[in-house]
Design a protein that fits this description.
heterodimer; A: alpha/beta; B: alpha/beta
């Protein structure tokens, strides 16, 4: 319990510090807001008392004066408050946005193995929840509410100490009673939140993903509308049912708080009423006291509720902090990667084994390999033999479970991932293009002239297609980000991905099924230009199109996470192993 | 870009009252359709809230009168008792019903959202590709939250306000006629200001919702880890953040403007409120001085005036809000009424559909079919004439972008031809009910999708499950051994999205599963778009063997692997939207043309000597 309280306080501190970093004036604005709201709530209490007293004393002029000041005060304070609230809302949006960007930037620059990880995944989802729409504003508002609640409480004490000592004791009793009830509520709410997570996720999945454009064709052609509807309905009903159960349980457990409330009311009215009866208080003071007591108790409740709210978000804020604190470089990444003057390098895999899961199977088993500058390799193997995982290891997207990967004799993990990845241009089997301009897809990092981009487009044979588009290479892919966009076919997308790799012009090319969607002509062109494209480069092909094996110097056959055959095309054909079987299966058709 | 920001014409014009009531009526009907049991709860909530307010306002001043100068404390005690019993009771009723209403509201929100999503799933496929369409859908979705309040507004706010007015009216009439006029005048001005405020809100909400698809996309890019590899390798993080920042600043600017407009209107509102308050106080003081009120009554009347003003204000606000919800409802209707040319008969959905006919004795004909994507000036397909007979194997080849996939989509009736007719046994396929026609065909798309469900569910989908048929499909797709190797066989869950114990299949395995899915349907025509792109040579070989030798139905497939054309009865060579060659492999390879060129280029690396 105590630890939780300390944690929540440090979360509050974190939020406030971040807010300050983004918008210096936020503190001032927030405090003004609090001040104004306090004044607004007190102005009625005080002035009504004064007005009523002045009226009952028969002092008409005084009363009128009070009324004028009161009304004028309300107008000015309200206007100021509205203005400040507006500024505050704007600033909260900016603060939230900054935090979101910080999280995103972190996510995009952390070493990939730290993201692509089952364990880290949940923490990352929590971090995202901490910055989703409106959540930061909510937390900041809760903090303000706690502070103004405290101020209200102090103010009330002050006012009452002037009036009557007994009332002060009453107030303290009220506080204790309210606090006890609310703390229990807080704990209860916290436990309830855990239960609904999976149901909510299922509902969102059905609602958002299954109805998205991604499934549009399958839904229509396979007639899946009813299936999707059923899943969504089930999600809605489960969710609703859960909610109703939670409410029922809550009221079953906490009905006594209303009883308590009634008792409080009775005691307060009775006590203050008796003061009025005895003539200790005037009529005006009576009203003021009643309002003040409830103002006070309301402040206590709202303060506690706000605290409880922050407590519920606490686990998300914690995840966010932990995530933002992660370092972009591995702890031992102290070296700077420098290519020697002659550009020579060797990447060595030394007895590397890898598995994704602690309890899972090894995907790569005791693999050793050397990749030298200028090598042109092709890796083949059946589906599931580990080729793609090998590529991820090579690129530093995975860390070996056993063994090491060395670059020029030094362990790759001692280089910052950013520097190491500068060496590679890759086309993945599941590559992603962005719904931005075509030119932005080819050179996302910028730094390439129009001519360079045109040259690259020519190399992959897309020049004609691009010039047929309305805005040429400034045309957007799809209409997700623009009013006008073009839709590329599967093969055209693949050519674009290849263009992107060529544009980066790194020393090592890794091509994972680069021609899978290409027509024979396009594939042939790419192969033909291959020597030109790959001159002076180190190239690693992964392909089921064994034709590509004729372009390389060495072929490696992977099976079950190991390299089982290695050699030139002729050597492997003579061997009559897996390679020969695969090649013959494919080539057979052409050798009529 | 500017085009995005043009609001619909109807926003600025104030809706006619009649239209508002018509829309409100429709919202009520919609509400009734999707859920019930809310009315009673709303009434309870309304009554409880008003009763509580009433007691809180009325009783304390009465207490003052009883207690001041040592008058009747027994009566006072009675009133205190009433207060402390009824107020918590009303609180309980109010809060419980409010919580219930919130749960119902959430549920109903989702249910109406479901309607929108169903429409999104049934809209013509070509429309889903358009930006304008995405925006309409987004506006419809955002509008639900806004118009769902209508029945709550009507019941709660209006009735509640009326209730307050009636209760307090009994006290109020004793105040000056002047005061009455004052309060009504102030309320009228307040109403006009509120209407302006709502107009402003509607405008900006609709504007922002048009931007929603963009916002959602850049947020996905920012946060979804699947883009991670490409983002790192190609240093794309700054580009993405830049695009996001631009979208954010558009949204932020809209929010700022909206808030500023609201603020300015609010200022006038405070002024009006202040003047109203001033007059009431002054009049009350004068009356007290004239001896017409006791001190307790003084407080009562001040409060009563405030309450009347608030109640009238609430009532008029609710009317203005109804106008607002009516406008939002229009957004919903606009999307739901989108014309569909490829229509699924509502009554037929969900019923076990029988095939159009069984057997392989049919002819599918493309009769001078041309197709243009909406908004494009270029024809994707021109003057296509094709005949596909039952049991035929048809292979479609051609350059990337030549129109092969578009042809398939026309065959599947994802698109309708711009010109020409597609006929099945002499009858235009547009005359068949779509849910019957699609049973005739089973596709494997180039970009297939598996979802979070068991292997079996992904393969069987909505067809009845037959064990032998499923196993036959797995064998056909060469994935039987992989499934048997899974812990729970074909009941294993795919993807880790919802279940941690789910299984992620490799690219090739996924492709095989998509093939099993198509095979399971036992449709007359199997349509395959690059079915072996992700498969290793041995798997590929097995699949083609199964398709060529073991499958006895009609197959239409697109493949760049020209090995697959060997066993085709008919090869269609596409080039720039037209069919330029047709025939069997033997025939085409003799002619000097595109086909031969393609074949030789592909064979080159397989047959040449080093």
């Amino acid at each position: 319990m105590r630890q939780a309280f300390v944690n929540i306080c440090s979360d509050i501190q974190f939020m406030l510090k971040r807010a300050y970093n983004v918008q210096r004036s936020y503190y001032i604005v927030a405090m003004l807001n609090m001040l104004l709201s306090i004044m607004l709530s007190w102005i009625s209490v005080l002035f009504i008392k004064w007005i009523v007293d002045a009226v009952s004393e028969g002092n008409g002029r005084n009363a009128m004066f009070c009324v004028f000041v009161y009304v004028g005060g309300i107008i000015c304070l309200s206007a100021a408050d509205a203005f400040v609230c507006m500024k505050k809302a704007n600033q909260e949006m900016l603060i939230e946005n900054q935090l979101r960007l910080q999280l995103a930037k972190k996510q995009m620059t952390l070493p990939y193995d730290q993201i692509d990880n089952k364990k880290e995944h949940e923490e990352y989802q929590f971090s995202r929840k901490a910055v989703e729409n409106g959540s930061v504003a909510k937390i900041l508002n809760n903090i303000s509410s706690i502070v103004s609640g405290v101020c209200n409480i102090i103010g009330t004490f002050f006012v009452f100490s002037m009036l009557n000592g007994g009332v002060v004791l009453l107030l303290i009793a009220v506080v204790c009673v309210n606090a006890a009830g609310n703390i229990k509520k807080m704990q209860y709410q916290y436990e309830q939140d855990e239960a609904g997570v999976h149901i909510e996720r299922s509902l969102y999945y059905a609602r958002d993903y299954l109805t998205s454009p991604v499934f549009a064709r399958e839904v229509r052609v396979f007639g899946l509308v009813d299936y999707v509807v059923a899943r969504i309905r089930k999600g809605i009903d489960n969710f609703f049912h859960l909610e109703i159960q939670a409410q029922r349980k809550y009221y079953r457990n906490f009905w006594w708080t209303y009883l308590l409330n009634g008792v409080q009311l009775a005691v307060v009215y009775a006590y203050i009423g008796s003061l009025l009866y005895q003539g200790v208080l005037t009529a005006g003071e009576f009203s003021a006291c009643i309002s003040a007591v409830f103002l006070f108790s309301g402040a206590v409740v709202s303060g506690l509720t706000s605290f409880a709210d922050i407590a519920r978000s606490s686990k998300y804020i914690h995840a966010l902090r932990r995530f933002l604190d992660k370092s972009e470089d591995r702890s031992d990444a102290k070296n700077t990667l420098v290519l020697p003057a002659n550009g020579e390098f060797v990447i060595s895999f030394i007895n590397v084994s890898f598995k994704y899961d602690e309890n899972g199977p090894y995907i790569i088993k005791n693999l050793s390999l050397e990749l030298k500058k200028g090598d042109k390799l092709c890796i083949v193997g059946e589906n599931g033999s580990g080729k793609t995982t090998f590529v991820k290891l090579l690129l530093g997207f995975c860390i070996p479970t056993e063994g090491e990967i060395l670059f020029n004799g030094v362990s790759v993990s001692t280089y910052p991932a950013e520097q190491y990845q500068q060496l590679f241009s890759a086309v993945f089997q599941d590559f992603n293009l962005f719904s931005f301009r075509i030119s932005e897809n080819i050179a996302p990092g910028g730094g390439h002239t129009d001519e360079e981009i045109d040259r690259v487009l020519e190399k992959v044979g897309l020049t004609e297609k691009i010039s047929s588009l309305r805005y040429g290479k400034d045309t957007y892919l799809t209409e997700r980000m623009a009013d006008y966009g073009t839709n590329f076919s599967g093969g055209e997308k693949q050519l674009l991905a290849i263009a992107r790799a060529i544009c980066k012009d790194a020393p090592v090319y890794i091509l994972d099924e680069p021609t899978a969607a290409l027509s024979p002509q396009n594939e042939f062109e790419i192969y033909k230009k291959f020597h030109e494209i790959a001159r002076n480069k180190t190239v690693l092909f992964i392909s089921h199109r064994l034709a590509s094996c004729r372009l390389v110097d060495k072929i490696l056959v992977m099976n079950n996470g190991c390299i089982v055959e290695a050699g030139t095309h002729e050597q492997l054909m003579r061997k009559q192993g897996i390679y020969e079987k695969m090649f013959s299966a494919q080539a057979g058709y052409y050798q009529d | 870009m500017k085009k995005c920001f043009q609001p619909r014409q109807g926003i600025i014009r104030i809706e006619k009252i009649k239209n508002i009531f018509v829309n409100i009526g429709k919202i009520f009907t919609l509400r009734k359709q999707i859920g019930g049991r809310v009315l009673v709860t709303e009434v309870i909530h309304c009554l409880a809230e008003k009763a509580k307010q009433l007691f809180e306002i009325m009783i304390p001043p009465v207490l003052i009168d009883f207690l001041i100068e040592g008058k009747d404390w027994k009566q006072a005690a009675l009133y205190i008792l009433i207060l402390s019993v009824f107020i918590p009771l009303f609180s309980f009723a109010e809060e419980k019903s409010r919580d219930l209403l919130s749960a119902y509201s959430c549920r109903d929100d989702y249910r109406i959202l479901l309607n929108v999503k169903v429409k999104a799933m049934m809209v013509d496929y070509q429309d889903t590709l358009l930006a304008g369409n995405m925006q309409k859908e987004s506006r419809a979705v955002e509008s639900i939250n806004e118009f769902l309040e209508a029945d709550y507004l009507v019941l709660h706010e209006i009735l509640g306000a009326l209730f307050s007015m009636i209760m307090l009216g009994t006290v109020f009439y004793r105040l000056d006629v002047l005061a009455v006029y004052m309060v009504f005048a102030a309320a009228a001005v307040h109403y006009l200001l509120t209407k302006r405020k709502y107009k402003n809100e509607v405008y900006y909400t609709q504007l922002k919702s048009q931007n929603r698809p963009k916002t959602a996309y850049v947020e996905e890019l920012l946060f979804h880890t699947k883009y991670g590899k490409d983002v790192r390798l190609y240093d794309a993080s700054d580009l993405i953040i830049g695009k996001y920042a631009k979208v954010f600043s558009q949204n932020f600017e809209m929010d700022q403007k909206s808030r500023w407009n609201s603020f300015v209107l609010q200022l006038f509102d405070y002024l009006i409120n202040g003047i109203q308050l001033l007059v009431v106080y002054l009049l009350a003081i004068l009356k007290y001085r004239a001896g017409q009120l006791t001190i307790g009554a003084f407080t009562i009347y001040i409060n009563a005036a405030k309450q009347i003003y608030a109640a009238i204000g609430e009532f008029l606000d609710a009317l203005a809000a109804l106008g607002k919800t009516a406008l939002f409802y229009d957004d919903y209707v606009q999307y739901m009424d989108l014309k569909q040319t490829i229509v699924c008969d509502e009554k037929m959905r969900g019923k076990r559909q029988e095939k159009l006919f069984s057997g392989d004795d049919f002819v599918l004909q493309f009769d001078h079919v041309s197709f243009r994507y909406p908004g494009s000036s270029k024809y994707a397909l021109q003057d296509i004439c094709v005949e596909i007979k039952g049991k035929e194997i048809v292979s479609i080849v051609g350059e990337n972008g030549a129109g092969k996939t578009t042809f398939i989509y026309l065959l599947l009736r994802l698109f309708d031809p711009t010109e020409g007719v597609i006929q099945l046994n002499g009858r235009d396929i547009r005359t068949f009910p779509y849910e019957e026609y699609r049973l005739f065909l089973a596709p494997v798309f180039q970009e297939y999708e598996l979802f979070s469900a068991s292997v079996r569910e992904n393969v069987v989908l909505t067809r009845p499950y037959v064990k032998e048929q499923a196993e036959e499909s797995y064998r056909f797709a060469d994935i039987e051994s992989r499934i048997r190797a899974m812990e729970q066989g074909d009941l294993t869950i795919l993807t880790k999205v919802l279940y941690d114990e789910g299984v992620e299949l490799s690219g090739g395995e996924q492709q095989k599963l998509a093939l099993a899915r198509a095979y399971y349907r036992k449709s007359q025509i199997l349509i395959l778009d690059e079915p072996t792109a992700a498969l290793d040579p041995l798997s590929e070989h097995r699949i083609y063997y199964n398709v060529a030798r073991r499958y006895h139905g009609t197959t239409v497939f697109i493949s760049h692997r020209l090995t697959s054309t060997m066993f085709a009865d008919q090869i269609l060579v596409f080039d720039r939207g037209r069919i330029v060659q047709r025939g069997t492999h033997e025939e085409l390879v003799q002619i000097n043309g595109i086909y031969r060129e393609m074949f030789e280029k592909q064979a080159y690396y397989y047959v040449r000597e080093n």
